[in-house]
Amino acid sequence: MTQTPGDRLSALRDAAPLVHNITNFVAMNVMANVLLAIGASPAMVHARVEVAEFAELAQALTVNIGTADPEWGAAMEDAARVMSDHGRPWVLDPVGVAATGFRQDLCTRLLAMKPTVVRGNASEILTLAGLGGRAKGVDAGDSVADAEGAAQDLARRTGGIVAVSGPVDYVTDGARGARVENGHPLMARITVMGCSLNGVIAAFCAGGDAFDATCAALAAYGVAGEAAGRVASGPGSFQPAFLDALAALSPEDLNAAARIRQAT
User: Fold this and answer.
1) Could you tell me which of 191, 103, 179 has the C-alpha nearest to residue 139?
2) Going by fewer Cβ within 10 Å, which terminus of the chain is more open, N or C?
3) How do the domains of the chain map onto residue ranges?
4) What DSSP designation does 188 have?
5) How confident is the model over 64-117, as pLDDT tens digits?
6) Where are the alpha helices (H) located in 42-192, listed in sequence order?
7) Which one, of 193, 196, 213, 215, lies nearest residue 204 by Cα?
């Protein structure tokens, strides 16, 4: 990395990028608080009548299809088009893409707009790559290792970054690869942790190289999860502890605790 993860965290907080999020109903409140805790400025704007105009103001965008409908889907395309036209980063989360034809068709159209980062679980990435996958609704039925080849192929097709979330995250641009080993088991027991992560990735990507930024974002998220896990007694106490840990995370602590390994 030309910059350390801590350098990127400092830059994010100095810039406080405006991150426009078209996300699902379940995620909105938690995701907004996560972005505030890390140091970004969140906006939850999904009405088609205004998304393109609002996207003009934003430094980054996230698109999450978790509770999409046709009108939201069209709004997602409008906002993504603005970001692509301006060369600004946007993150696609293909939640439950294998579940319905509507989700698959929507993701096909969004992928054609060349997202900066695609982040999903292993089954979602396998589905996007056309290799099936053993999804259980919105949950993965495949391992991260199962999806690494599919992630590489998808990254080469989109020209962007693909991040496969799991106990150890995998990140690739189709040529380079990295594994991010930070995190805590309780993170998987809180809904919308992955959805909220999209915003953190987008905020980091607003500051530069998307591959390194994605790795740094995943590490920061995981390090905060580890800190929260040390004080939480279960999922209920984990969520506020996680927000506190994100807000308290220092660049020095992130550099000391980040476990980002080059992958062959």
Assistant:
1) 191
2) C
3) 5-262
4) G
5) 999 999 999 999 999 999 999 999 999 999 999 989 999 999 999 999 999 999
6) 48-55, 70-86, 101-111, 122-128, 144-158
7) 213
Q: Tell me if residue 199 falls in helix, strand or coil.
A: helix
- Residue 3 corresponds to which tokens in the numbers above? 């910059």
* Three-class secondary structure of residue 47 per DSSP: coil
Q: By CB neighbour count within 10 A (0-12 exposed, 13-18 middle, 19+ buried), where does 73 fall?
A: buried
Per the CB < 8 A criterion, the answer to whether 237 and 263 are in contact is no
**Secondary structure class of 64 (helix, strand, coil):** strand
The answer to whether 211 and 161 have CB atoms below 8 angstroms apart is yes
Burial 123-158 (b: 16+ CB within 10 A, else e): bbbbbbbeeebebeebebebbbebbbebbbbbbeeb
| Distance, CA of 179 to CA of 226 (rounded, Å) | 17
Amino acid at 190: I
d(CA 264, CA 244): 35
Instruction: Provide the token pair at 256.
Output: 């000391």
Distance CA 84, CA 242 (A): 32
In terms of DSSP bridges, do strands 60-64 and 18-22 run parallel, antiparallel, or are they unpaired? parallel
Q: Encode pLDDT of 174-219 as tens digits.
A: 999 999 999 999 999 998 999 999 999 999 999 889 999 999 999 9
| 60 bridge partner residues | 19
CATH 3.40.50.620 fits 5-262, yes or no: no
* Neighbour count for residue 4 (Cβ, 10 Å): 17
Identify the H or E element spanning 226: helix 210-231
First to last CA, the chain: 16
